[in-house]
Amino acid sequence: MSLPRVLYRFAIVAASAVFATGPAAAQEAGGTLAKIKRTGTITLGVRDGSIPFSYLDDKQQYQGYSVDLCLKAVAAIEKNLGLSGLKVVMNPVTAANRIPLMANGTIDLECGSTTNNAERQKQVAFAPTMFVISNRLLVKKASNIRSLADMKGKTLVATAGTTTLKQMTMLNNERKLGMTIAVGKDHPESFLMLETGRAAAEANDDILLASQVATARNPAEYTILPEALSVEPYAIMMRRGDPAFKAVVDAALTQFYQSPEFSKTYDKWFMSAIPPRGINLNFPMPATLKAVAAKPTDSPDPAAYAVTAAPAPAQKTDAKK
């Protein structure tokens, strides 16, 4: 089969337009498969700075682990529909607008770093889990902050539209920490607030924090705290209520996860030098992900992944510039 033709769209759709169209516009007779067959196009939601899952390289092209997985699903969709040369459009999304853009039909698959949880499953659907993370804090070593309890009265930053922001707000209230919670518009801005001293800690998913440390100007200045504040599954997002489309995507990814090619793809993004700066995250496959790959599931329940609850991530990096 010929590889899909990939086009890139760089204009971000205005949030007002997103909500103006509404979820009703997303569904047409025959669902997403019929839409793709009629238009000869599939639109992927991608992120600008979610390294190594979905990001822009120095050639302004989208790539990453999640993008590779989505293209596996695209190939299966193309085969299922009997098409050749299916056009793939990359549509940038943010943590704040990814779910509305999926619900209103702007994007067909979201290829980023999105947590699958029960609350979100009321709005969208998810493919089998592609990664398992823990929420942790990133701090400067010189701060002597060792846990969330040490953040009492200090400023913490989390990214808008993430489950982490919601969790930190809840923990701040439950534990009466009196933190000021700042909100970064995206992950790079959240890290910038920590880097420039406007926040004492950044809360985020451990693998995203590891990528920020690896790409920082002075990686040795930072440490990811070992305290795991939650366990969450990442998955590719789809529209809710479209079982035919979900069946094709789920089957493609399940087959891929159980193939020898999956570990090669994992190593490509987490154990090898990646563009644009040649950073190697040196992040071995977590035991949780190995278990999920052996027995794929789209469960949003953290307990389904608890057996794998994770040690602190490796922070050794190998920068090849």
* SSE string: EHHEEEEHEHEEEEHEHEHEEEHHEEHE
What overall form do the CA principal axes indicate? globular
Ends distance: 36 Å
Taking all Cα atoms into account, the compactness measure Rg is 19 Å
Number of helices: 10
Largest sheet: 6 strands, mixed
What's the average pLDDT? 88
- The number of distinct β-strands equals 18
Estimated structural class: alpha/beta
Helix content, binned percent: 25-40%
Explain this structure.
This protein has about 325 residues and is α/β, with parallel strands linked by helices. Helix content is about 30%, strand content about 20%. The two termini are about 35 Å apart.
Itemize the secondary structure elements and their pairings.
Elements: E1 5-8, H1 15-21, H2 31-39, E2 41-46, E3 49-50, E4 54-56, E5 62-63, H3 65-81, E6 87-92, H4 98-103, E7 109-111, E8 124-126, E9 131-140, E10 155-159, H5 163-174, E11 180-184, H6 187-195, E12 201-205, H7 206-215, E13 222-224, E14 230-234, E15 237-239, H8 243-257, H9 260-270, E16 273-274, E17 279-280, H10 287-294, E18 318-319
Parallel strand pairs: 1-6, 2-6, 2-7, 10-11, 10-12
Antiparallel strand pairs: 3-4, 4-5, 8-15, 9-12, 9-13, 9-14, 16-17, 17-18
